[in-house]
Amino acid sequence: MEDVCVIVPVYNEASTVAVTVSDLLRRFHHVVCVDDGSDDGSADLANAAGATVVRHAVNLGQGAALRTGFDYVLRHTTASYAVTFDADGQHLVDDAHRMLERARLGGTDVMLASRFTGCARQMPLSRELILRAAVRLTRATSRLEVTDTHNGLRVLSRRALERIDLRMPRMAYASELLDAIVPAGLTYLEEPATVIYTAYSRSKGQKNSNAFNIIFDLAVNRLRAAR
Amino acid sequence: MIIKILLIAAAIGVAVLLLQEKVPGQREASRRAAGLLLVVVGIVAVLWPQLTTTVANAVGVGRGTDLVLYLFVMVFAYSALVTAQRIHRLQHDITVLTRELALSRPTQPRGGEASLPPGGSRAGEPTTREQS
Description:
- The complex is a heterodimer of chains A (227) and B (132).
- Helices cover 45% and strands 20% of the residues of chain A.
- With 227 residues, chain A is an alpha/beta fold.
- Chain A has a seven-stranded mixed sheet, sandwiched between helices.
- In chain A, β1, α1 (17-27) and β2 (30-35) form a beta-alpha-beta unit.
- Chain A is globular.
- With 132 residues, chain B is mainly α.
- Chain B has one domain (2-102).
- Chain B has helices spanning 2-19, 29-47, 49-59, 64-104.
- In chain B, α3 (49-59) packs across α4 (64-104).
- The termini of chain B are far apart.
- At the A-B interface, β2, α2, β3 and α3 of A face α4 of B.
């Protein structure tokens, strides 16, 4: 997989990032970790595990980290596809590989992963309810036929990287990314994929209450756009 | 009248800082002038408190202290807004700078398998590996 660059946003993931990177390197040639100002040595671990590391001097949020990753791919590589992959070990490398193959076959710009048509191991019920609500909201705003809106596993064509601009703070970028697909004239598909909820990912990952922050950020953005 | 001495001393202190340009963000002459005017008004109000009541009655407020409170709330709200805007701009600038800085010096993997990106010459960047 020479023309693929895997982007892994990393923020204080010292216990999982090295395994994630070495798993990825078994199937992919080039892994870039965007270290979002970690202070637990995650960047060095990722680097030692074989990833190229791009470091934010201060923490800017996952959306900014992904955007830096997109810019890295566009400026420093000639890759025709980028894969976004969470550092906490909740995705399967095989899923990413399969999504990539399918994107190549159909010339799809954006390949999204769904844990709801796929498999979500040990997902807490509260998380499931919130995510399903998020899906309903996003289907209404983005005109996308998707079943999972906040999955960190995605395959994006170079064209998609050029056209999608992430500006929202914190976690609202996930909806922003989806909302941009149709207006940018990009093609998309959803693929069933597995998300593994470990005790670690549950403690490290998003809090359910953060859903309110996301909705607030999105609402503010809409008001701004309407002006 | 110890309180008058204290208040006037504080007001003069503010005026000195304004004139020495030690207050950040007060570089524009208009804003400095406004600050100095506020200091003068403050000193006058401390020396002749009844004057505030006269002015208050003239604009339809009952007591001088109420007028001072209203003015304080307005000035405070204005300065809070200006500060919030400045912080927002700064955050944006920091975001842009941080991302550019990060992109200008990627660290290539140490040893192990080669996973260099195809294309793009990046001379002079910090790397722990020899590249030809």
